[in-house]
Amino acid sequence: MAKPQADYDVVVIGGGGHGLATAYYLARNHGLRRVAVLEQGWIGGGNTGRNTTVIRSNYFFPESAELYDLSLRLYEGLSRELNFNIMFSQRGVAIVAHSDMEMEIAARTINAMQINGVDARWMGREELMSRAPLLNDSPQARYPARGAIWQGRAGVARHDAVAWGYARAADALGVDIIQGCRVEDFIVQGGRCVGVETSLGPIRAATTGLAVAGHSSLLAGRAGFRLPLQTFTLQAMVSEPVKPCLDVVVLYLGTGTYLSQSDHGEIVVGGALDRIPSYAQRGNPPVQEQVLSGLLEMLPAFDQLKLMRQWGGAVDVTPDSSPIIGPSPLPGLSLNGGWGTGGFKAIPAGGTLFAHLLATGSHHAISRPFDLSRFASGSLVDEAASAGIAH
């Protein structure tokens, strides 16, 4: 493990996917090698290791489509670029509609995606059942599957492989990755952030980036400003391994439950946010009951499936369910946060765009709409529906 130097060109706070990707792209795209990543725990131990690993770009607005499809395109070549197998499986995502209203919304979503240049089409009921034959096909089904929004390029990847791939590549380019280093305060001189006070001593930097997911508001408070964020727990569960039976990612609009089968055979299940603000990385039984009820409505054949473990991630949600990328109210400190439930799928794009901001001092065209100033101007990018977060 690297030991911290007294000063760097850039310090990135947060050793999750976004922090590690930012450091890698700072070195690779911008030639900055005096870069440090500070992680209070271990790399990938936060939300990067606490999600359901779904990667998709089926968002509604052009600004979001550009952002998330950039990420998907980067994911498509990431194993080759990092020389590390991230196990990206483009098995497709089906978002299932159950009513006339949901089918109308699905049609609008597909039209928007196609206009935005993102692959999307309507998958009819027969094709859906042929792709996922275990779905509930009973005439008594509460949420009958009438078809789905289909994005064939979407899929899943291995969460720890993404973190380690970026970490290895950044380390090979000379980046210092410092684990067990807690940021306790910011060093401010002349009204500008010039470094951080850490559990391993002070570290100075020409510029500092904050990429700490659910803890963004806590670190912002130490820097002297507030962010328009609320932090909630998003939990997931995984079953015992079973034989291959589901080769697509499925989400039901009616229940909010979504699932996929891992390469090891486990069924990975997620659902709605726990609406009580919390930083806890654990589950809540009422939410678990809601998610599992949705699972059994979707796939009654899983009624005897044994759950092996569950976990929670602390997600930071903005009023419009879109991220914050841009300078903070404290000069010298920039923000990459507010990803809510969409952080993992956005890691390559988030790292690329944040590295551009830190290296050049200005926005990339794709990140500009997600600047913090949009909450003052009212130029919101409201993606609550596509993000799967209820208002």
Describe what this molecule looks like in 3D.
This protein has two domains: 7-53 and 159-227 and 320-387, FAD/NAD(P)-binding domain, CATH 3.50.50; 93-151 and 231-317, D-Amino Acid Oxidase, subunit A, domain 2 (D-Amino Acid Oxidase, Chain A, domain 2), CATH 3.30.9. It is 29% helix and 26% strand. It contains eleven helices and 18 strands.
The CATH homologous superfamily of the largest domain is called FAD/NAD(P)-binding domain
Low-confidence stretches: none
Q: Which class best fits the helix and strand makeup?
A: alpha/beta
Number of strands: 18
Instruction: Please outline the major beta sheet.
Output: 8 strands, mixed
- Give the radius of gyration: 21 Å
Shape assignment? globular
CATH class bucket of the largest domain = Alpha Beta
By CATH, the topology of the largest domain is FAD/NAD(P)-binding domain
| Architecture per CATH nomenclature, i.e. the level-2 architecture of the largest domain | 3-Layer(bba) Sandwich
The number of distinct structural domains comes to: 2
Helix content: 25-40%
Strand content: 25-35%
Q: Residue-averaged pLDDT, rounded?
A: 95
Number of helices: 11
Give the arrangement of secondary structure elements.
Elements: E1 7-13, H1 17-30, E2 35-39, E3 54-55, H2 62-76, H3 78-82, E4 93-97, H4 100-115, E5 121-124, H5 125-131, E6 147-151, E7 155-156, H6 159-172, E8 176-179, E9 183-189, E10 192-198, E11 201-210, H7 216-223, E12 230-239, E13 249-252, E14 258-261, E15 267-270, H8 285-298, E16 307-317, E17 324-327, E18 333-337, H9 347-360, H10 374-377, H11 384-387
Parallel strand pairs: 1-2, 1-11, 2-8, 4-13, 11-18
Antiparallel strand pairs: 3-7, 4-6, 5-6, 9-10, 10-11, 12-15, 12-16, 13-14, 14-15, 17-18
